[in-house]
């Protein structure tokens, strides 16, 4: 528009319609020859800097004017038509290849365009009014367009202020440390003031309400009162994180199912804004919600996901929506007494779970400064455990054993004893085990009042049984851990039972194979150690509360060197090994007293009396084990009197390590016993010192303390006398 006005001005100065003559190659060559013919006049002038505005061009004219007499004469000698044609040629040449003109040509062009006798000299006032008017209108439209685009690219500063601030503060309060977005709520002191840990480490104090807050819609993050250079890394970290979390639109979050291969589902998105790894996608499968977890980015806007449920009936073209976060499950007191699956949906047919809070199943472990390092024994009421391999409060205990040696019954007894003795909360996570066992456990807990349908329950159940897809079995342990973490953060001492941690590893191996990763030793996934460590490091004690984890570990073919149980060993504070040989003797729990270990069996932790008693018991049992070969070949008669006494007491100790369980009462008919630690220590001391030498071996089988054994022995002796 501005150029058209200049053209009309040129027409007005020449009063001829030929000013709009089509520019052709001959005319450009004519201009070049004319400009070159004028160039010698400029040879004596100084070189001028490049000009970018009309005022600069006028200044160039003022400086060079005394030396332009030759150009004036040639210009004045031209007829008006040639002047108009030369001006039009000049204008088009300046648009096309101004940078290719020589300095002399440029100087001549400037003078012709803006000199006192150029086309602008005789422009009527009305034409220039239009020029300036069009210029002002164009600038106004450009500014309005820029402001409109800029406003659409960021949230409105007023209408979104409260919503963004509340959402951000609630998110930061609920997440002590968020691995997905790199933002920490450490230092939170109310709305509008958050101090990140990276800022604390640099000694930076964050003040509310400035540029960074405005860029986020005043979302409770603030710019520190420091230099821009020091603050820039924090801004780069915070702004994209929250913007990605809250500024995505529905259209960008929706994708279409591209391929379905069993539990693997590929989803294609229309844009390059793909969901993050471990994000949850939701789709509809025959009226049922199906959750997918992003595992890989394949390229061409396609993500590969693992289904958390069966994919039967799922077809290409179905819409899958990115939830913007990992799988979130209900946490808090509302989960007590309820059974839920890997995605937090109730499966006990008792309606929805009444939870006020949801938490993602993927999270970072607590910081080192948040963890507690005090050593304290957790009394379980099971004699063999409390004496020989005591559990640490807030520790990780591995329950090793082959198939059918009593791992699940042992865990059920622990849940029952902890609920009775300590009144704490428990979380039971069934990972890839039998559905029948989970059903039996649920009803047994109701019978023992651990779960009260109309009252206060002490346990939450999370099941991903062996009929579930590998994705569910690989993530259900994290769901149970997330529920336990919330109780710990509320100041509770929580017991987390995982039955079976081997199935967690096995499911991870299946998922790894589905994703096409090359397997490592014995066919396990190459990321076995990483997957195990990521979960185990979250099980710890903090300044607020503790999580004590008991993990049943299936040992394939009773081989403790298998990579799955061997990887688990590195994370455990205590190991309880269930022996098939002891179970064949009918001694339950079938805990091997010589293979079971604990770092808590230290005189500085348990006390000297406890340590000495446990050492003497293990020594006597070890001597008996070494004498078994001689006994099998030569018999008891070939032993010395001291060895005979050792064998007799060791056999009584071995039977005294058995104990009736409350949860097994329906099978054994024997009332369960919960033995205090002091009674356990004193009872074993009496047997070692020979106070039970007059009692038969059967008196020590399936009893609680030593007094119960004496009463049972006297009863047996009385029956023998009668017979």
Automatic annotation (TrEMBL):
Produces ATP from ADP in the presence of a proton gradient across the membrane. Its main location: mitochondrion. GO terms for biological process: mitochondrial electron transport, cytochrome c to oxygen; proton motive force-driven mitochondrial ATP synthesis. Keywords: ATP synthesis, ATP-binding, CF(1), Hydrogen ion transport, Ion transport, Membrane, Mitochondrion, Mitochondrion inner membrane, Nucleotide-binding, Oxidoreductase, Transit peptide, Translocase, Transmembrane, Transmembrane helix, Transport. It is an enzyme of class 7 (translocase). Its EC number is 7.1.2.2. The keyword Transit peptide applies. It is a single-pass membrane protein. It catalyses: ATP + H2O + 4 H(+)(in) = ADP + phosphate + 5 H(+)(out). One of its GO terms (cellular component) is proton-transporting ATP synthase complex. InterPro entries: AAA+_ATPase, ATP-synt_VA_C, ATP_synth_F1_bsu, ATPase_a/bsu_AS, ATPase_alpha/beta_chains, ATPase_F1/V1/A1_a/bsu_N, ATPase_F1/V1/A1_a/bsu_N_sf, ATPase_F1/V1/A1_a/bsu_nucl-bd. Belongs to the ATPase alpha/beta chains family. PROSITE patterns: ATPASE_ALPHA_BETA. The chain crosses the membrane at residues 131-153. This is ATP synthase subunit beta. It is found in: Mitochondrion inner membrane. Residues 393-575 form the AAA+ ATPase domain. The keyword Nucleotide-binding applies. GO terms for molecular function: ATP binding; oxidoreductase activity; proton-transporting ATP synthase activity, rotational mechanism. It comes from the Eukaryota.
């Amino acid at each position: 528009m501005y150029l058209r006005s200049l053209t009309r001005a040129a027409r007005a100065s020449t009063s001829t319609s030929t000013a709009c003559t089509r520019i052709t190659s001959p005319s450009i060559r004519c201009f070049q020859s004319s400009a070159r013919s004028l160039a010698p006049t400029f040879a004596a002038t100084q070189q001028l800097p490049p000009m970018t505005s009309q005022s600069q061009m006028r200044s160039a004219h003022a400086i060079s004017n005394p030396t332009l007499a030759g150009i004036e004469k040639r210009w004045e000698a031209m007829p008006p038509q040639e002047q108009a044609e030369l001006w039009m040629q000049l204008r088009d040449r300046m648009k096309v290849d101004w940078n290719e003109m020589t300095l002399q040509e440029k100087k001549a062009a400037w003078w012709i365009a803006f000199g006192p006798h150029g086309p602008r000299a005789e422009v009527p006032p009305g034409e220039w009014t239009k020029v300036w008017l069009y210029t002002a209108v164009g600038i106004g439209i450009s500014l309005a367009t820029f402001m409109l685009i800029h406003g659409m690219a960021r949230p409105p500063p007023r209408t979104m202020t409260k919503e963004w601030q509340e959402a951000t503060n609630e998110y930061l309060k609920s997440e002590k440390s968020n691995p997905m977005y790199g933002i920490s709520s450490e230092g939170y002191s109310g709305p509008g003031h958050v101090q990140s840990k990276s800022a604390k480490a640099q000694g930076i104090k964050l003040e509310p309400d400035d540029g960074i807050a405005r860029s986020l819609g005043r979302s409770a993050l603030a710019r520190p009162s420091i230099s821009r250079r020091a603050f820039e890394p924090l801004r780069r970290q915070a702004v994209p994180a929250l913007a990605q979390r809250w500024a995505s639109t529905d259209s960008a979050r929706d994708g279409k199912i591209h391929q379905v291969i069993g539990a693997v589902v590929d989803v294609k998105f229309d844009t390059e804004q793909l969901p993050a790894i471990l994000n949850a996608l939701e789709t509809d499968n025959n009226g049922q919600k199906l959750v997918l977890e992003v595992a890989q980015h394949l390229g061409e806007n396609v993500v590969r996901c693992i289904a958390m449920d069966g994919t039967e009936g799922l077809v290409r073209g179905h819409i899958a929506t990115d939830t913007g976060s990992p799988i979130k499950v209900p946490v808090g007191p509302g989960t007590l007494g309820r059974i839920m699956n890997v995605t937090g949906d109730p499966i006990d047919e008792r309606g929805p779970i009444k939870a006020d809070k949801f938490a993602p199943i993927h999270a970072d472990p607590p910081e080192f400064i948040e963890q507690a390092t005090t050593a304290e024994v957790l009394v379980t009421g099971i004699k063999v455990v409390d004496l020989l391999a005591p559990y640490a409060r807030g520790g990780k205990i591995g329950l090793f054993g082959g198939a059918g040696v009593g791992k699940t019954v042992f865990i059920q007894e622990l849940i029952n004893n902890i609920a009775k003795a300590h009144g704490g909360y428990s979380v039971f996570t069934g990972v890839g085990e039998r559905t029948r066992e989970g059903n039996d456990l649920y009803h047994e807990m109701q019978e023992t009042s651990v779960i009260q349908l109309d009252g206060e329950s002490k346990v939450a159940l999370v099941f991903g049984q062996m009929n579930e897809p590998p994705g569910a079995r690989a993530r259900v342990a994290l769901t149970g851990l997330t529920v336990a973490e919330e109780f710990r953060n509320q100041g509770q001492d929580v017991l987390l039972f995982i039955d079976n941690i081997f199935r967690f590893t096995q499911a991870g191996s299946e998922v790894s194979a589905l994703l096409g990763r090359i397997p490592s030793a014995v066919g396990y996934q190459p990321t076995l150690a990483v997957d195990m460590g990521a979960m185990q490091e979250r099980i710890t004690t903090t300044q607020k509360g503790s999580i004590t984890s008991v993990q049943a570990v299936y040992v394939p073919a009773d081989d403790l060197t298998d990579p799955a149980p061997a990887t688990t060993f590195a994370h455990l504070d205590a190991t309880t090994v269930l022996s098939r040989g002891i179970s064949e003797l009918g001694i339950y729990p079938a805990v091997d007293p010589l293979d079971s270990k604990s770092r808590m069996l230290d005189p500085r932790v348990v006390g000297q009396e406890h340590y000495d008693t446990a050492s003497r018991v293990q020594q006597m049992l070890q001597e008996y084990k070494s004498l078994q070969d001689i006994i099998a070949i030569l018999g008891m008669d070939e032993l010395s009197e001291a060895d005979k006494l050792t064998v007799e007491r060791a056999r009584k100790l071995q039977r005294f390590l058995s104990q009736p369980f409350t949860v097994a009462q329906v099978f054994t008919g024997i009332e369960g016993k919960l033995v205090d630690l002091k009674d356990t220590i004193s009872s074993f001391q009496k047997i070692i010192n020979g106070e039970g030498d007059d009692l038969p071996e059967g008196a020590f089988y399936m009893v609680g303390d030593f007094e119960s054994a004496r009463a049972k022995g006297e009863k047996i002796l009385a029956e023998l006398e009668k017979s």
